[in-house]
Inverse folding.
DNA sequence: TATGAATGAGATTTCATTCAT
DNA sequence: GATGAATGAAATCTCATTCAT
C-alpha cells in the first residue's frame, strides 16, 4: 500500500527498504542517470524481489524520491552535528569545507555536486524531489535555508556583517560552497587542485561576509 | 548513415535537422527530462517523420547530443560577440550579467541553469555531451575556458589581479555567474529578486578579482 | 488443505469463510467483474489476512466458486420456502414474481440478472460454477430443474396443461422469468416500468401454460 | 495513436486490425473469458507483433470493445438483410429463428447467447461495450430497439396487436428469442432439442402478439 | 490458526529502430 | 530523401501463492 514516505527515521526504515535506498544510492554514485534507473536494476542490486519494492512504494518514482529524500535528511543531520559542535562562523566554514572535501561517500547519492545537480533540475525525478522538499520539515533542509540560518546566527554573534542584504549573503555563501564542490569533484573540465583553491576560498568568505577578517587558516 | 556531427555551422544545418534541434530545445525548455525524451516526441514536435530522424542521426542519443552541442555553440557565439564589443573587464562583467538576466529564450535549451545542470551531470545524455565537449574546438566553449580567457585578458590589460592563483579566480568567477543564474531562475528555493542581488554581486566580482575597485554600476 | 466445498450448511460455515463469502457477494453486487477480482481485494474487504483464505481454500477460483455456490443454495432455499408456503401454480407464479421484484439484496451476488449472466457464460469462473452445479445435489437447484418441478407439480394438481412438451414449457417459463428480471434490472437499454409489464406477464404465463386461465391478479 | 473506433465499415478496417478482431472472435468463441484475454494471446493468435496492436488501439480494453462492437454491427447488418428480404411479421419470425439456429459461426463472437451474456453484464469489458452502445448509431442495434422496430412495423401492417403495451411486447419477444438461443446453445442445463421446442415457440409468439394466429409452420 | 511479507511469473504498455514503399 | 507501419525487447506494475512467524 505504499506506506513509506521517505521521512522515517533511519531506525524505523524497514530492512528491505534500506536495501532499496542503498541500491539507489550506489547506482546514482555510479553515475547512472536517475531518470533512467529501472526497478529491475534497483531490486536486483538490492538483492530482493521486484514485487517487494511495490509492497513499500506505490511506484518507481516513489522509490527514487524517497531514497533521495532519505539521504538529504542524512546529509542535513550530519551538517546539524557539525553546527552543534562548533558555534563560531569561521569555525563552521572550516568544518563545512572539510566535510565537502571528504564527503564523497558512495552511499550518499545526494552529496556534493549531485545535490547541486538535483537542485538545478526542474524535470523528472528532481522535480518530484523539489516538490516534496517544499513540505515541512524538509524545507529547512534546503541549502539556502541552512545558509540563512548560519548567517543569522553569525549576525547574532556579531561575527557577520549586518549591512548587506540577507539575500545577497545567502547567494554568495551558497555560490562559494558550490564552487568548492565543483573543484573537489572536478566538474566539467574544471581540473583543479582543491588544496590550492581552498585557503583563498575560505578567506574570501570571511572577508566578504564577516565584520572583521577571520584569523589565518 | 548519420552524417550530422552537431558541429555544422547554422547555415549548413539541413532544414529537417534544424526542425529536430528546435523540437529538442522546446522540449527541454518545457522541462521535459532530457534522458526521457522519446524519438516519437521529438519528430512529432518537429513535424517530420520518425524515420527521417534516422536519415541524419544514428541514434536517439545522437539527436539529443547534437542538438545540445549546437545550442552550446550558439551560446558561445553570442558571448563571443559581447566580448568583441567590449574589452574592459568591468564592462564585460556588466554585459554578461545583462545577458544572463534576459537570456531565457525558450529556443536555447542550454542557456542559464540548464547549462549548469548539464555540466554538473555525469550520467545519460549529459555524459555524452561532456565527452564530446572535450574535443576541439568545443573545449574552448566550456564555461571555465571562457572564464579563464576573460581573466587572462583582464590581467593583460592590467585590470585583474595577478597575485591570485588562476584556478581560484576561475572558480570564483564561475561560481558568481552560477549564483546569479540561479537567482534569475529562482532555482531551488532561492527565491530572490535579481535586481536586489545584482549590484552587490557585480561589485563583489570587481572587488575580489580586480586591481582597483570598478566604478559604480 | 482446502476443505471447504461450498456445500456446507450456513451454520457450518466457519466465521472467516463467511466473511470471505460476504466480501465476494458485495464485490459482485458492486459490479466488479467476477474473473478480475483479486484475492487481496476479497480478503481486504473481508477484513482478514490474505494467507487465511488459503487455509480454507486451495485457490482463488475455489473461493469464488464456493461463494457463488453458497449463494445459489441460499437462493434455492428461499425459493423452496416460497413453494412450501403456497401450492397452487398461479399463487407460486405470483410469489416468484414478487420475489424477483424486491430480490436485489446486495448480499446475494447471484440474484436476478447476475444469475442469468453466470448461466449464459461458459468461461472463467462461470464455467467452474457450471461444472460444480452438475454434481448432486446442486443440479436440482438449477433454474430449469426448479421450473420443471413446479410444472410437474402443476400438472399433478391438474392446473398445468399436459398437451405441451415439457421441454417447451420449461423454456417458456424460464424465458418469462428472465424477461421480468431484465425488466426489473433495466438491463441493456431496456428501460421499462416493471409495474406496467407485470400484470400482462403474469396472465400470459397462466394463459399459455395453464388448463384454465388463472384468476385476475 | 489509437484512431480505430470500431465503427469503421468492414472495407475500411486495416488488415492488421481485422486480424486482431478475428483473433478476439476466435478466442471468445473458444470460451475464453473476455475479461481475462491478454494482449499477448490476441496478437499471437492474430500473428502480429504485440506492439502493433498499440499502433491502432490505446489499450487492451479498446481492442476488445472495438472487436465486439464490430461484430455487433455485422450481426445487425445480417438482421437488416433478413428484414429487408421479408416484410410480414410471421415471415420475419421464421427467418430470425432460422438464423439463430445456424448462427453459431465461430467468427462471430457476439452471436447468440454470448450477446445475451454481454448484455446482462455490468462489469469489465461488457460495461464498456454497453456504454459505447448508447452512442449513435449503435443504440439502434440493441436487441430491444430491433424488437421494437419489428413490432411497430407489424402494427403498421395490421399484423401485430395494438392493445398490448409496447414495453410488454418488446419484453416478450426478446425473451422468446433468448429462450430459443439458450435452447440452441444448450446453455446452462437447458439440454433441449431445438427442433422439438421451435414449432411451439413460433406459434406462441404469433398467438400472443398477433391479431390473428399465424399460419402453420 | 492466522498472518502478511516476499516473490517471480506474467500482464500491459512504451519505444528505439528497421525497412518496404 | 522521406515516411510511418511494424516489431520485440524491455519497462512498469499486479497478483496468486508460499511460508516463516
Amino acid at each position: 500500500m505504499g506506506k513509506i514516505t521517505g521521512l522515517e527515521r533511519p531506525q524505523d526504515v524497514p530492512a528491505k527498504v534500506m536495501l532499496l535506498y542503498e541500491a539507489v544510492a550506489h547506482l546514482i554514485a555510479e553515475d547512472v542517470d536517475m531518470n533512467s534507473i529501472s526497478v529491475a536494476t534497483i531490486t536486483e542490486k538490492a538483492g530482493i524481489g521486484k514485487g517487494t519494492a511495490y509492497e513499500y512504494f506505490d511506484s518507481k518514482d516513489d522509490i527514487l524520491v524517497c531514497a533521495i529524500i532519505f539521504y538529504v535528511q542524512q546529509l542535513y543531520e550530519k551538517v546539524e552535528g557539525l553546527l552543534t559542535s562548533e558555534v563560531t562562523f569561521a569555525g563552521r566554514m572550516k568544518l563545512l569545507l572539510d566535510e565537502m572535501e571528504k564527503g564523497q561517500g558512495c552511499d550518499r547519492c545526494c552529496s556534493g555536486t549531485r545535490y547541486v545537480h538535483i537542485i538545478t533540475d526542474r524535470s523528472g525525478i528532481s522535480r518530484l524531489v523539489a516538490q516534496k522538499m517544499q513540505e515541512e520539515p524538509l524545507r529547512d533542509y534546503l541549502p539556502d535555508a541552512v545558509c540563512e540560518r548560519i548567517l543569522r546566527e553569525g549576525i547574532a554573534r556579531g561575527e557577520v556583517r549586518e549591512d548587506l542584504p540577507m539575500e545577497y549573503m545567502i547567494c554568495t555563501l551558497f555560490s562559494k560552497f558550490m564552487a568548492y564542490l565543483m573543484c573537489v569533484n572536478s566538474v566539467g573540465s574544471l581540473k583543479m587542485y582543491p588544496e590550492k583553491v581552498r585557503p583563498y576560498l575560505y578567506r574570501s568568505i570571511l572577508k566578504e561576509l564577516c565584520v572583521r577578517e577571520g584569523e589565518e587558516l
The mean pLDDT of chain B is 88.
